[in-house]
C-alpha cells in the first residue's frame, strides 16, 4: 500500500461533520459505517486532528502492521516518525502496548 493511501484514509471531510451529525440522510449519503468505523463523531475528530504521520501510523496499525519496520515499509515514514506516531497513539489511548511489537 502506498504512503499516500494511508494519508487519505479519512472517508469524510472534517468540515462536514456538523452537517453529517445533524442529518441522518446526509450521514447515510456519506456512508453507513461512520459510527461503526470511528466510534462516533468524537473518534473521527480525534483521527482527523492527528498529524499526517501519526494518522498513517494509526491506519497501519489498523491494517495489522505491528512492528516498526513493517510500518516504515508500509507508510514510507522514517523510524523516528514511526516511533513518535506510536508514542502519540499510545498516549491518546488509541493503541495499546500489546498491539505494538515494541
Write a concise synopsis of the structure shown.
With 102 residues, the protein is an all-alpha fold. The protein has helices spanning 3-7, 17-22, 24-30, 34-38, 41-48, 52-62, 68-75, 79-92.
Helix/strand structural class: mainly alpha
For the termini, the CA-CA separation is 22 Å
Please bin the fraction of helical residues: 55-70%
Element pattern in H and E: HHHHHHHH
Find the count of extended strands (DSSP E, 2+ residues): 0
* Rg computed from alpha carbons, rounded to a whole number of angstroms: 14 Å
Number of domains: 1
| Overall body shape | globular
Task: Please work out how many helical segments DSSP would assign.
Answer: 8
Described by strand count, sense and barrel closure, the largest sheet is: none
Report the average pLDDT across residues. 72
Which stretches are poorly predicted, pLDDT < 50 over at least 5 residues? Answer: none
Protein name: HTH marR-type domain-containing protein
Organism: marine sediment metagenome
InterPro entries: WH_DNA-bd_sf
Structural account:
With 102 residues, the chain is an all-alpha fold. The protein has one domain. It is built from 8 helices and no strands. Helix 6 crosses helix 8. The longest helix has 14 residues. The chain is globular, with a radius of gyration of 14 Å. The mean pLDDT is 72. This is HTH marR-type domain-containing protein. It comes from marine sediment metagenome.
Amino acid at each position: 500500500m502506498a504512503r499516500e493511501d494511508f494519508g487519505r484514509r479519512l472517508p469524510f471531510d472534517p468540515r462536514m461533520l456538523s452537517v453529517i451529525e445533524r442529518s441522518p440522510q446526509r450521514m447515510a449519503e456519506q456512508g453507513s459505517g461512520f459510527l461503526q468505523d470511528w466510534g462516533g463523531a468524537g473518534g473521527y475528530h480525534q483521527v482527523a486532528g492527528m498529524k499526517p504521520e501519526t494518522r498513517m501510523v494509526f491506519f497501519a496499525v489498523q491494517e495489522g502492521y505491528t512492528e516498526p519496520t513493517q510500518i516504515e515499509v508500509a507508510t514510507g515514514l522514517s523510524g523516528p516518525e514511526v516511533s513518535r506516531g506510536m508514542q502519540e497513539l499510545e498516549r491518546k489511548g488509541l493503541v495499546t502496548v500489546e498491539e505494538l511489537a515494541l
